[in-house]
Amino acid sequence: MFCIQVTDVGKLAGESRISGPYADRFNQLRGIFVDKTTSPLYIADLLNRRIQNWPKNALEGVTGASSNGGKLGSNNASLDRPYGLRVDKETKIVYVVNLMNNRIQRWKHDETDGDTIVGGTGEVNENNQFHHPTDLAFDSNGNLYVSDVWNHCVQFFALIDNRSCQASSTTTVKTST
């Protein structure tokens, strides 16, 4: 049996029970990442189509990765339902699962456009394509793993200098159905 002692409880980000597009509000949160070195929260705000950076003790968030002010699109400045995210603690590059655009994007610090590192073009049944990706993870070697919901698999990508490899270098791990 485990005993967990809670020392403090409170709301850190967002206006309780009120959704909206404003800097202090969210519209369906999906992913969250805590930077353990500087303490901001990075939050995937699904229906506002943005990633909010919420500094410690702030009253509102700062939009990092965005979708042209919340508009739908598929260009490099667009997010269509961001889901999972990770932040590289050294470079502060934000990696985003772009659910409806079926791709993984990265946003370099202080840049307005992201770039696609894998997915986003072609047929959804190809090894380097997704059909509703929801989360991502990196291992200690920098390899990328993506949960691919409607392809029913986890996809693996060996990244070289954060550039995606060719489809022939990917491995697909099928989940049982």
Automatic annotation (TrEMBL):
> Which sections of the protein are NHL repeats?
126-160
UniProt KW keywords:
Repeat
PROSITE patterns, alphabetically? Answer: NHL
Q: Which residues form a coiled coil?
A: none
Extract the Pfam families matched here. NHL
Q: Which Gene3D superfamilies match?
A: TolB, C-terminal domain
- Output the InterPro entries linked to this UniProt entry: 6-blade_b-propeller_TolB-like, NHL_repeat, TRIM-NHL_E3_ligases
* One GO molecular-function entry: zinc ion binding
What is the name attached to this protein's record? Uncharacterized protein
Q: Which organism is it from?
A: Rotaria sordida
